[in-house]
UniProtKB/TrEMBL annotation:
BP GO annotations: regulation of DNA-templated transcription
Keyword DNA-binding on entry: yes
MF terms in GO: DNA binding
SMART domains: HTH_LUXR
CDD domains, sorted: LuxR_C_like
Listed InterPro entries: CheY-like_superfamily, Sig_transdc_resp-reg_C-effctor, Tscrpt_reg_LuxR_C, WH-like_DNA-bd_sf
UniProt keywords, alphabetically: DNA-binding, Transcription, Transcription regulation
Origin superkingdom: Bacteria
Lineage, opening ranks: Bacteria, Bacillati, Actinomycetota, Actinomycetes, Pseudonocardiales
Protein name: Oxygen regulatory protein NreC
Domain HTH luxR-type as annotated: residue spans: 139-204
Length: 206
């Protein structure tokens, strides 16, 4: 019964439309939209756990995870993907800062994973922890050197600006900004904006 009491007192913010265990306390819900808006919603509520849906747009979900972790690093984030999600998506979520990842659409299966994440422990669906641990033994790659313009674009991506907003700030075309972002993804060897934000924060690039 202690778990139930802790969960009622804690409360979560749910991003998108992931499964949520029956009776799980939800303090607020927000659409899986612009990462900065999601992070701002979490900051306002200050929940004990954030549950982010990755079953919709991969890029949007990962960016939301990274933005929440950057703004409120003390709050654990549980990313929820569809059953059978590829391992690369799981690893991307961890790289973006997720405390745990569940690959399920069953609220009952999600419950023990959510409880572990709420407690701040690594929390994964069966079999995923081994995938994550195996990826962690890969030798760290040196951080590539960025040009001044690439550094500017990266800093603004981390701040949550869209390509159009970055273009206006730097007096560039949106297409040029997107080209810079694509070069950053290739140069830093990350799969998307969410992972790019996490990489920049972890390595002091922004």
């Amino acid at each position: 019964m202690q778990h139930d009491t802790d969960e009622r007192e804690a409360g979560s913010v749910v991003v998108g439309d992931p499964p949520v265990p029956r009776g799980w306390p939800v303090l607020g819900r927000t659409a899986a939209g612009p990462a900065e808006a999601v992070a701002a919603a979490v900051v306002r509520v200050r929940p004990a756990l954030v549950i982010v849906d990755l079953a919709g747009s991969r890029a949007v979900g990962l960016a939301a995870v990274a933005a929440v972790v950057a703004r409120v690093p003390a709050v654990p984030v549980l990313a929820v993907a569809a059953p059978g999600a590829e391992h690369e998506l799981v690893l991307d979520a961890v790289r973006a800062g997720a405390t745990g990842v569940a690959t399920t659409d069953d609220p009952v299966e999600l419950l023990p994973v959510a409880r572990a994440a709420l407690a701040g422990r690594p929390a994964f669906s069966p079999g995923l922890a081994a995938v994550v641990l195996e990826s962690m033994v890969t030798p760290a790659r040196p951080v590539p050197e960025l040009s001044p313009r690439e550094s500017e674009v990266l800093r603004l991506v981390v701040e949550g600006l869209t390509a159009r907003q970055i273009a206006a700030r730097l007096v560039l075309s949106p297409r040029t900004v997107e080209n810079h972002v694509q070069r950053l993804l290739r140069k830093l060897d990350v799969p998307g904006r969410g992972a790019l934000v996490r990489y920049a924060i972890e390595h002091g690039l922004a």
